[in-house]
């Protein structure tokens, strides 16, 4: 199938730019202003101070959720004042707490490994933030961010239909590709979304930012959803429940400090000494156990995923073949995707799909996203329910 990349904003267009204080979003705002667009900067306010600020002699890594938000907002305001750009801070704390933080904690406590950035993009950055803009009475032609991705439209209907919804494609700089994070953003929302950095490399972005003497070019890039210093405090609303660490045969190897502190594939911090390298192979919330196994036992032939999203809400009527990513850092692998009929007692969110890999994949983690690609275009994705 052929696709056409959608055009970027032109001079005279009113463009909302989601700004974080980082180099990508700051340069995006500057480029659009220099192009002649009427730029309005907006920043999400997430931090509500519910967790005490950590004081440390060591540098605390930049994170999306943390007390550093106030400084980021000040930097965005300073930049916009210098450039004559209208600027607003949109309060999305309530929505963020409900849709991201509570989801994050609930998933970990259920023995699953969530990806909060995916839900933040779906419900906050491309949801509550834009709702807040509309409540301010601001009319706009486009919403732009510093994501490395492209918005395209198929030249013929998807999955045999006559509909040609907006879809997400990989960026030119494949080392910075962020399509995995935004796969759940609805096609209807994507109609007004554009990513001006889609055709640039990170090196080019830094070069332009430094040439423009942007303070953002000197900032450390955000690496985490939340700094590791705050992780335990985020879960302090309920006491952790210790349980057994066992092997594949059910033999007790030790005691874990609460399943929310473990993820599939983890090796460090297990507190168990064995004669072989051991990894977390499974987490069972019902029995409150963490299962360890040798590396080879972490391979899976496939998975069952549910809570799927499809371009334009159009799902395939038959089995399809696609390239699949089971986590952000994984390489896409070819797989067959077909409808799955639940067995008695199985519960799913929406229609579940069975994904069978052409080659076994390591450390498939329930709760993570399984994103489907064809020719570098996202054609769907869901949440991993269990492995096969």
Fold and architecture overview:
This protein has 388 residues and is an alpha/beta fold. The protein contains seven helices and 20 strands. A six-stranded antiparallel beta barrel has the order 15-18-17-16-19-20. It has a five-stranded parallel sheet with strand order 5-3-2-6-9. α1 packs across α6 and α3 runs antiparallel to α4. The longest helix has 20 residues. It starts with a strand and ends with a strand.
User: Which strand order do you get reading across the main beta sheet?
Assistant: 15-18-17-16-19-20
- The ordered H/E elements are EEHEEHEHHEEEHEHEHEEEEEEEEEE
The proportion of residues forming helix, as a percent range, comes to 10-25%
Distance between the termini: 31 Å
Note the overall shape: globular
Summed up, the helix count is: 7
Structural class estimated from helices and strands: alpha/beta
- If you compute it from the alpha carbons, what radius of gyration comes out, rounded to the nearest whole angstrom? 22 Å
Gist of the model:
The chain is α/β, with parallel strands linked by helices.
